[in-house]
Amino acid sequence: MTKHLYDRIQVLEREDELDRQQRLKAMARPLLSWYEGHARALPWRDDPTPYRVWISEIMLQQTRVEAVKPYFERFMAALPTVQALAAVEDDRLMKLWEGLGYYTRARNLKKAALMITERHGGELPGSYEALLALPGIGSYTAGAIASIAFGLPVPAVDGNVLRVISRVLADREDIRQPSVKARMERELREIMPRERTSQYNQGLIEVGAIVCVPGGEPRCGECPMESICLTRRQGLWKEIPVRGALKKRKVEELTVCLIRRGEEVAIHKRPDTGLLASLYELPNVTGHLEPDQVPGAFGLSADLVEAVEPLPAAKHIFSHVEWHMAGYAVSLREGGEMNREGAFFFVERSAVKGEYPLPGAFKAYTKLI
Ligand code: ADE
């Protein structure tokens, strides 16, 4: 931006006359100089190859930076290339992802790695459209990879950026509406700088993460956009951004059993479609059972069962479903017949955690294994 134009914007700003586009344009200069001094040192920022940026951005969807850091390092050490990811066994991949949640992300990573090998010679494609065509990559992730790894001038609008921009503009449209995000992407694409696109996009994300924070009062005194932010000027941070109501989550009741036989514990592989597809779980049935109902419900004859002891209730919240779990520890005598052979199988307690991906949803009980 020329000095002349910048001065003109400052004058307009004082007069409160900036239109939407001018206000958005005025963000670049203060944002870029702020980011230079305030970017957090994060593992994926040191060496932003397309592969590292891709993996980090997928992990960062729905997951906090601090939670992602150790997973990212471990994943990179285990699967350092697209080729390694394309060839990994599913159980090993799920084990690397265990605890991060939203396992479809990991399944899509492998699918995309196979496509990248087949169609793009093993290198992530350097165009927004080709990135967008890969499984698990939406407009945000395509924009993040294109701008951070390839320097292309495309926006990367995630929840952080939606919050920052709607506040700068004091825009009261519902940021949960896809049309609102699409408009913001169009507007940012028009005005974002052609250079330093990585710093620009990550600067917006960073302001959203550490200044214009999602919960509680924003730290406006530290914000590079303080002087152009209409929400700041009008004192509206409690009202903006507007988020429409989410659909209510369905509650499902479950009874989960930690079935022990000597040094072994029973586990079961989930079906390969649906929630937590292909992952392992502790045996469970729908509904909350009383202790005397447990053996029958799990196909265990009474003479096989030594004891049924209640465990604490637990809850796990997915995006669309909540599990309310009752738990029992069941001790079995060695030997004896099982009526539901095949419903679960026994593995050594010491081996289960190292070898079988057990999702965090069962943590209250798997931690007792
Ligand atoms: N959240 C999503 N993408 C991010 C990034 N590149 N850096 C920090 N936080 C992020």
Automatic annotation (TrEMBL):
Keywords of this entry: 4Fe-4S, DNA damage, DNA repair, Glycosidase, Hydrolase, Iron, Iron-sulfur, Metal-binding
GO MF term list: 4 iron, 4 sulfur cluster binding; 8-oxo-7,8-dihydroguanine DNA N-glycosylase activity; adenine/guanine mispair binding; metal ion binding; oxidized purine DNA binding; purine-specific mismatch base pair DNA N-glycosylase activity
Cofactor list: [4Fe-4S] cluster
One Gene Ontology term from the biological process aspect of the record: mismatch repair
HhH-GPD domain segment(s): 59-210
Function field: Adenine glycosylase active on G-A mispairs. MutY also corrects error-prone DNA synthesis past GO lesions which are due to the oxidatively damaged form of guanine: 7,8-dihydro-8-oxoguanine (8-oxo-dGTP).
NCBIfam families per the UniProt record, alphabetical: mutY (TIGR01084)
Name of the featured protein: Adenine DNA glycosylase
Source species: [Clostridium] asparagiforme DSM 15981
Lineage: Bacteria, Bacillati, Bacillota, Clostridia, Lachnospirales
Gene: mutY
